[in-house]
Design brief:
The structure holds 2 protein chains of 2 kinds.
Chain A lengths: L2 H18 L24 H19 L8 H4 L9 H12 L2
Helix pairs in contact in A: 1-2, 1-4
Chain B lengths: L3 H8 L5 E5 L2 E4 H17 L7 E5 L4 H12 L3 E5 L7 H7 L4 E5 L5 E5 L7 H9 L3 E6 L7 E6 H6 L9 E3 L7 H12 L3 E3 L6 H10 L4 E4 L1 H10 L12 E4 L6 H10 L4 E4 L1 E3 L3 E7 L7 E4 L3 E6 L2 E6 L5 E2 L12 E10 L2 E7 L4 E3 L2 E3 L1 H8 L5 E11 L3 E10 L8 H13 L10 E4 L2 H4 L12
Parallel strand pairs in B: 1-10, 3-4, 3-5, 4-7, 9-10, 11-12, 12-13, 25-26
Antiparallel strand pairs in B: 1-2, 5-6, 7-8, 8-19, 14-15, 15-16, 17-18, 18-20, 20-21, 22-23, 24-25
Helix pairs in contact in B: 2-3
Classes of the chains: A mainly alpha, B alpha/beta.
Chain lengths: ~100, ~450
């Protein structure tokens, strides 16, 4: 698996983890363009934070890399990395390669 | 007589917009009409001065007019919003509510008598002095909400000084000291209160654009979320001149980023407590966390790094907790501060309360929910810093021997599911740590994926 595929799979599994504890009528669907936060997203701020923490945990478990996704640098980027699954994946790919 | 000064302002600004509700403007003339209507309704229901009246509502023309009518009637006003619906029964008991008025989403009202008869020294004091009261629920260190009783006549005093009229968003809630402050400030200066149907950045900023909002009183988390959502890129928010934030410590980086994006918006930190009211404060500049607090009616001192305040508008006391005041009237805020001349900087709470995006979480409450499960032998709940929400709730769990064949994700899922039925989402631990690493190491083994 390429790094990108691994990250996408980690994000997808983290979505599933969130869905495990959501009401059946309120499940999140997963695809690269899905909005993580903002007007078009069904995630609220608590959901977003939970998702990011779930992803962090999987990155640590599966890649053995300890990385805090919601850091000050991510928050002060001109284009928010938390816009879509794709932008988050782009951001992680760059940051984890460092 | 208590709201004469407000009525005079309303009457001389009849054609001005007072409230925007569900995106519809209501003028001061409309507000006066609503006020008369509510005064009549209170009379029809034979509401007497000194009655403890709970109002469950969000901001609307009716709920605002009712608030004013209750002040004038010298009632003791206990506002709550649907966000605390789960605690409504407890709040009714603690504050000995005699009458509950519920205002629904269409602004229709329902009256219910509780058959409770209230008797408390603080209520007696208010009744003897023939002044209206206000009861606000604040956070206690054990998870039980504390009911702070205020003399509303004193709280109203500071609004008699005319200040700048603003078009303000009602971001803070109807039952929050900051919300009460925004409402009274706006009305006493013939400004306009723009009410919200939700608090998502996109919607809030759309309201700013649509209704030319000048003042947005909010929280650091909202500022974070506004930046993350990129919502500001979609709307013209040039009408906004001032953003105020309070209730939780602000990361300096967020402040700097906001200031870079919006150099013309004045950022002001406010400082207020349910027990004392909102103080006037002045930030050193828009990118600074240093501020001067105080103003008329407030004195401050710092004792062992903790801010103490003496306020003219301070509450009489708690209904259900011992007096937090020293004999000479000082209140220990529990906030640790740094001092530089006349400026202070809030470092954070002394106590262990976890502040998640401005909402308070008591470890004890979450721990007790976790411990309801037989599978949990021990639970310890604490806060961990988070760049988006300030803090998140984390829990360290020791599982019982009966479930020692469970893996981490199974355990997490079960714990979260249980919490869902008992806690609001922000209180549910976002991170679980499982204790007794040795015992669990076999099952919690890291799974590695090969990376090309």
């Amino acid at each position: 698996m390429s790094m990108r595929e691994t990250l996408l799979s980690i994000i997808e599994q983290s979505f599933e983890e969130l869905n495990d504890t959501r009401e059946p009528g309120n499940l999140l669907s997963f695809h690269p363009e899905v909005a993580l936060y903002g007007a078009n997203s069904s995630l609220d701020s608590v959901d977003l934070v939970n998702l990011l923490l779930a992803i962090e945990e999987r990155i640590e478990d599966e890649l053995d890399i300890s990385f805090t996704i919601a850091n000050e640098k991510a928050l002060s980027q001109k284009n928010s990395p938390f816009k879509t699954v794709k932008s988050l994946c782009d951001y992680l790919q760059i940051e984890l390669a460092k | 007589m208590f709201i004469d000064f407000l009525e005079n302002i309303f009457l001389s600004n009849q054609s001005k917009e007072a409230i925007v509700w569900k995106e519809q403007p209501y003028t001061y003339a409309n507000l006066v009409e609503q006020l008369r209507l509510w005064q009549e309704k209170l009379n029809q229901h034979n509401v007497q001065p000194g009655t403890v009246v709970m109002v469950q509502a969000d901001y609307s023309p009716a709920s605002i007019a009712l608030f004013l009518a209750l002040i004038e009637k010298q009632c003791i006003f206990v506002p709550i919003t649907s966000s605390v619906a789960a605690q409504k029964k407890e709040f009714i008991e603690v504050s000995q509510v005699e009458l509950v008025i519920t205002i629904d989403e269409s602004d229709n009202a329902r009256f219910e008598n509780t058959e409770i008869s209230s008797a408390h020294t603080f209520y007696e004091t208010l009744r003897e002095e023939a002044v209206p009261g206000l009861v606000l629920f604040s956070s206690g260190s054990t998870g039980k909400s504390k009911a702070a009783v205020h003399d509303l006549a004193k709280l109203l005093d500071k609004f008699k000084v005319p200040r700048h009229a603003m078009r303000a968003i009602s971001f803070l809630l109807y039952d929050h000291i900051g919300g009460v402050n925004t409402l009274l400030y706006t009305l006493s200066n013939a400004g306009c209160l723009i009410t919200l149907e939700n608090r998502q950045p996109d919607y809030v900023l759309r309201m700013v654009e649509k209704f030319a909002v000048e003042l947005l009183p909010t929280s650091p988390s909202f500022i974070n979320l506004m930046l993350i959502s990129d919502a500001y890129k979609n709307y013209d928010i040039s009408s906004l001149t001032t953003v105020t934030y309070g209730t939780e410590p602000m990361p300096e980086s967020t402040l700097a980023q906001f200031h870079r994006l919006f150099p013309d918006i004045r950022l002001l930190q406010t400082y207020g407590l349910s027990e004392l009211g909102i103080m006037r404060s002045k930030s050193k500049d828009s990118s600074s966390l240093w501020m001067k607090v105080g103003g008329e009616g407030f004195e401050t001192r710092i004792v062992e790094g903790i801010l103490h305040i003496k306020a003219y508008s301070a509450m009489l006391g708690y209904l259900n907790a011992p007096s937090p005041f020293t004999a000479d009237g000082w209140f220990n805020t529990g906030d640790m501060v740094e001092q530089d001349g006349e400026y202070i900087k809030i470092l954070g709470r002394e106590s262990e309360i976890i502040n998640v995006g401005g909402q308070k979480v008591f470890p004890a409450e979450v721990e007790s929910v976790l411990q309801q499960l037989d599978e949990v032998a021990e639970a310890q709940v604490f806060g961990q810093e988070n760049a988006i929400l300030g803090n998140v709730v984390s829990a360290k769990i020791r599982l019982s021997n009966s479930v020692n064949d469970w893996d981490k994700s199974q355990a997490k899922k079960m714990l979260k599911k249980h919490c869902m039925g008992h806690l609001e989402s922000f209180k549910i631990p976002a991170k679980f740590y499982f204790d007794d690493a040795e015992q669990f190491s076999a099952r919690f083994k890291k799974q590695r994926t090969k990376v090309a």
